[in-house]
Design goal:
This protein has 365 residues and is an alpha+beta fold. 31% of the residues lie in helices and 12% in strands. The protein has 11 helices and 9 strands. Belongs to the peptidase C1 family.
Length: 365
């Protein structure tokens, strides 16, 4: 395969691939444009290869063979072409190169999502919504829980379908900070390892099930005491080690959870004005994969496949209303790990289905 691919490439390009970074002056991230490339980079194979080497250096990419590197370069070129073509058409947001640029779209979808839908999501909490009586007119014009000290830094789920755990944990970290005044980083790994009643570790899960687990099992441990592995492990909750080092008692507890009324943007904003909210969206679109900044308005469908956390809302300078969403793909994706998603679209289920399946943890003072 390598020989056939080599035959399609200029000799100079193959030499660049062989010698790697030694032949290319690798730029620091600050030297790259806001979208990660310039028009000049698209002018020749040699410039594209230089850009690929910069990409590899920035994201510490390494490939097992020249054949694999050639294949990834072809994928990179295809993704870059999509990014450039889309940036010529869209106006409210822009796409850019990120660490997913050497993955095919199918590879990306298989590795970085992880929401599992089941018919039994809703339970006896279905009718409970504590913010029902809040007057819409009384809601603040904008809310940003990051500025209120209720959001930890962006985390990275890696190639593990554990988005549901990150969405859950961010919402629990938020309500705990609001009620107690203490912002504590909590353990996604504990949910991946221990919450097996309906959830499936790196193979997907659901935030409501995770909230139920936390409430029923006395809370959640800190990330420091139960760190993230980016893979499934053995449940260490209640182990002898925990008893010995005083970590048997969970760091943060919740009372339960409630669902936001389905397909009701006003209800979502009411909840969001009071605390961060776990939401589900369709994030498998190619534009979502390479989102870099601005107010995202699609394209996307409403087949929910990714759990994230809404941490605020506001209005952009161009008048576009948005919801601030914390993702779990690291701080190099989007706006330092966040995305602003258009609201007020006129569709009941919201952009990418964001209004379809929202919920939040409850915590008594």
């Amino acid at each position: 395969m390598a020989a056939s691919m080599n035959s399609k490439l200029p000799l100079a390009l193959v030499l660049l691939l062989l010698c790697g970074g030694a032949c290319v002056a690798v730029a620091m991230p600050s030297e790259l444009s806001i979208v990660g490339y310039s028009e000049e980079d698209l002018a020749s194979h040699e410039r594209l290869m230089e850009l690929f080497e910069k990409f590899m250096a920035k994201y510490r990419k390494a490939y097992s063979s020249l054949e694999e590197k050639l294949r990834r370069f072809e994928v990179f070129k295809d993704n870059l072409n999509h990014i450039d073509e889309e940036n010529k058409k869209i106006t409210g947001y822009w796409l850019g190169l990120n660490e997913f640029a050497d993955l095919t779209h199918d590879e990306f979808k298989a590795a970085y999502l992880g929401l599992t839908l089941t018919p039994a999501r809703r339970n006896s909490n279905d009718q409970l919504f504590r913010y029902e009586e809040v007057e819409a007119a009384s809601l603040p014009k904008e809310v940003d829980w990051r500025k209120k000290g209720a959001v930890t830094e962006v985390k990275n789920q890696g190639q593990c379908g554990s988005c549901w755990a990150f969405s859950t944990v961010a919402a629990v970290e938020g309500i705990n900070a609001i009620v107690t005044g203490n912002l504590t980083r909590l353990s996604e790994q504990e949910l991946i390892d221990c919450d097996t009643d309906g959830n499936n570790g790196c193979s997907g899960g659901l935030m409501d099930y995770a909230f139920s687990y936390i409430a029923a099992n006395g809370g959640l441990h800190t990330e420091e005491s139960y760190p993230y592995l980016m893979e499934e492990g053995t449940c260490r909750r209640g182990s002898t080690e925990g008893d010995d080092d005083g970590e048997a008692a969970a760091a943060v507890t919740i009372s339960g959870y409630e669902d936001v009324p389905r397909n009701n943007e006003q209800a979502l904003l009411k909840a969001l004005a009071h605390q961060p909210v776990s939401v589900a969206i369709e994030a498998s679109g190619r534009n979502f994969q390479f989102y870099s900044g601005g107010v995202f308005d699609g394209p996307c469908g409403t087949r929910l496949d990714h759990g994230v956390t809404a941490v605020g809302y506001g209005t952009a300078s161009k008048g576009h209303d948005y919801i601030i969403v914390k993702n779990s793909w690291g701080s190099h994706w989007g706006e330092k790990g966040y995305i602003r998603m258009r609201r007020g679209t006129g569709k009941h289920d919201g952009l990418c289905g964001i209004n379809k399946m929202a919920s939040y943890p409850t915590k008594n003072a």
